TrEMBL record:
InterPro entries with a match to the protein in the record: TPR-like_helical_dom_sf (IPR011990)
Keywords associated with the record: Membrane, Transmembrane, Transmembrane helix
Region named Disordered: 100-146
Protein name, per record: Tetratricopeptide repeat protein
Residues forming coiled coils: none
Listed Gene3D superfamilies: Tetratricopeptide repeat domain
Length: 247
């Protein structure tokens, strides 16, 4: 049965405690504490995320979109909790819905550990997913949902690291990498975790993986005390010199 958790770490006791919620398809997916939409708890693994869980989470927030004469597209949830795209009488009406403009990534939020995705960036990406869903782009909506979930998982992992729960943080970051393998902050914060574990060589590998996946938070990185132990290391200097000039 699908399991979920609240993503609002810092603002909700349920999220802070890491409480897990079991929900059957069709049940309310809101946190009982803060009413925020729960996110799927993915266990990770080579097989990738459970698409049925993702679909159920997306389906829970679906609203009917109808034109004046039944034109466009609308969505409904099937018995299998999957999203069905149903074409109405006038398919051309769907193209009239304007797409949300892509916004530049907002600055990452300052944290006591690592670098966290900004709430503004997460909210913009969530809206982009809603727009894609309303336009009938189910794959695009699922991709956006995965990216949002990965960023929320990064925030959870940072909170766990700040509490000294390194094993939990490592699992959370691995789950985030499964959801969005191209999210640079997953690898950056994994590098921070490796440094806390005393695994410096692996930290450099994670740091380079972050740079290869489009890391752009160099200003925040320069202020991050987590990297103080390697800041004068020739390997760190070489990496920054190599990748900072390419962004």
């Amino acid at each position: 049965m699908p399991i979920y958790k609240c993503p609002t770490v810092g603002d909700c006791e349920k999220a802070n405690s890491g409480e897990i919620f079991v929900r059957s398809p069709g049940e309310d997916l809101k946190c009982p504490e803060c009413s925020t939409l729960l996110v799927p708890r993915i266990t990770g693994g080579k097989s990738g995320p459970d698409k049925k869980i993702i679909a159920a989470a997306i389906a829970a927030g679906i609203v009917v979109i109808a034109g004046a004469v039944g034109g466009g597209l609308y969505y409904k949830k099937s018995h299998a909790a999957k999203v069905e795209v149903v074409a109405a009488a006038d398919p051309a009406a769907a193209s009239e819905a304007p797409a949300a403009p892509a916004s530049a990534s907002a600055p990452a939020q300052a944290t006591t550990v690592g670098i966290s995705p900004s709430d503004a960036d997460i909210n913009a990406q969530r809206k982009d997913g809603d727009t894609k869903l309303s336009q009938g782009d189910a794959p695009g909506a699922e991709s956006a949902s995965n990216q949002v979930a990965a960023k929320e998982m990064v925030k959870v992992a940072i909170a766990q690291m700040s509490q000294g729960k390194l094993d939990d943080a490592e699992k959370e970051l691995n789950d985030a990498a499964t959801r969005d393998p191209k999210q640079s902050l997953v690898y950056y914060n994994m590098a921070v975790l490796r440094l806390k574990q005393g695994r410096t060589d692996e930290a450099f590998k994670e740091l380079e993986a972050s740079f290869l996946n489009g890391f752009s938070y160099f200003d925040e990185m320069q202020k991050d005390p987590d990297l103080d132990t390697i800041r004068n290391d020739p390997r760190f200097i070489a990496l920054v010199k190599k990748y900072k000039t390419t962004v």
